[in-house]
Design a protein that fits this description.
Helix content is 54%, strand content 0%. By secondary structure, the protein is mainly alpha-helical. The N and C termini lie far apart (72 Å).
Length: 70
């Protein structure tokens, strides 16, 4: 006996996790997981500058799906 109350508690917690998960504190989670802050934050512009040399070698003439177009 007594299993009904424990099961009801588990169902309640499961429903809260499923439907009310919008309030996650991502910074706190990052700290708990031990994820280090990235000293280098590459934005899109930084990446385009970094790989600009490859754009000359592999221009827009190449198909994007990796095939040779033949």
């Amino acid at each position: 006996m007594g299993r009904g109350r424990a099961k009801a508690k588990q169902v309640k917690v499961a429903r809260q996790l499923k439907y009310n998960s919008g309030g996650t504190d991502l910074d706190r989670l990052k700290n708990e997981l031990g994820v280090a802050e990235s000293a280098e934050d590459d934005s899109y512009d930084a990446l385009t500058d970094k790989y600009a040399d490859y754009a000359d070698d592999y221009g827009a003439d190449e198909p994007r799906d990796g095939t040779s177009g033949r």
